[in-house]
Design goal:
Blueprint (H helix, E strand, L loop, with lengths): L8 H9 L6 E2 L2 E2 L3 E6 L5 H7 L5 E7 L9 H15 L17 H12 L19 H11 L6 H8 L8 E10 L4 E10 L17 E4 L5 E4 L9 H12 L2 H5 L25 H14 L1
Parallel strand pairs: 6-7
Antiparallel strand pairs: 1-2, 3-4, 3-6, 5-6, 7-8
Helix pairs in contact: 4-5
Length: about 290
């Protein structure tokens, strides 16, 4: 069989370049909220992630809901009221939308197969094992991408965009470990919402919070200073440890987006099987059942 040893860097730079210049989708910001699961044996999600990574897994990327005009019923009622008072009807601008296409799912599946392992966006569904692709990722695209008028390429570019300076820590989830008497971070979210404040979910009060690394090193945070755990810090200390291309492509010192027509020097090798070969194996397996 023909095997591939690396991702298509032409497609890679094409996707990343697509981030520049588009700031709104359906009238809403395209800056989504990344939620990451830390690979660990303490939670079911962490244990599932541990099958694919020693560091982290991208759980989801959510976008703000677009502002839509009122429903037809409310609009009609308001129109009648306005007609009575002002003899005029209030008009609501139509949102800029992209019509879903029949081949969206197929295109997204092909793109996802090429890149999911390079952004640690794995599926934990049984049917997607052993590679971790691609039913869950397709569902995520339909719910968070296609419904926000994104093409498969545009959705993928958002998944691979780690340059936006407006992302901040918005949620922290922990699990208390009585063996070490610390709250261990199991999940983190970075996005454009309200900055993190208060107590981490699942944490025991007045106990330090720790981020475990696979080499046995711990990052210990005072419970009152978790806001120091920035997206920039997380990229450099966690994400780039496993996906070095992220720090090659995105300047973590000043958030300036840097890219070159040359491929990242340290981009990891892709899965050693093509999408068509994987699809054939799946079809043969299903046919055998």
């Amino acid at each position: 069989m023909n095997r591939i040893s690396q991702i298509s860097f032409i497609t890679f730079t094409f996707l990343i370049a697509g981030v520049v210049g588009e700031d709104v989708i359906n009238g809403s910001s395209t800056v989504g909220t990344f939620t990451f699961v830390m690979a660990n044996s303490r939670t079911s999600l962490g244990a599932s992630c541990l099958k694919f990574s020693n560091y982290y897994c991208l759980l989801r990327l959510n976008f703000p809901q677009p502002r839509l005009p009122p429903s037809s019923e409310n609009a009609s009622s308001q129109s009648r009221d306005n007609s009575k008072k002002n003899k005029s009807t209030r008009r609501f601008p139509k949102p800029v939308t992209r019509v879903a296409r029949k081949d969206d799912v197929d295109k997204c599946q092909e793109l996802m197969w090429s890149f999911f392992s390079h952004i640690n966006f794995f599926s934990f569904l049984k049917d997607d094992l052993p590679f971790g692709c691609c039913d869950a990722q397709i569902q995520a695209y339909v719910l968070n991408g296609q419904r926000n008028s994104m093409s498969p390429r545009k959705y993928m570019s958002r998944l691979m965009d780690y340059s936006d300076r407006s992302r901040r820590l918005v949620e922290v989830r922990t699990r208390f470990d009585q063996n070490i008497c610390m709250n261990v971070i199991t999940q983190l979210s970075f996005g454009p919402g309200e900055p993190y404040s208060g107590h981490p979910k699942g944490a025991v009060p007045n106990v330090d919070v720790v981020l475990e690394m696979p080499n046995g090193f711990w990052y210990i945070f005072d419970d009152a200073r978790l806001e120091d755990l920035t997206f920039e810090w997380f990229k450099k200390q966690v994400m780039c440890e496993e996906q070095a291309w992220i720090c090659e492509e995105f300047d973590t010192r000043n958030w300036n987006y840097t890219w070159s027509p040359q491929p990242p020097k340290h981009a990891p090798a892709g899965l050693h099987i093509s999408y068509s070969e994987w699809r054939k194996l799946v079809d043969e397996s299903e046919g055998g059942n």
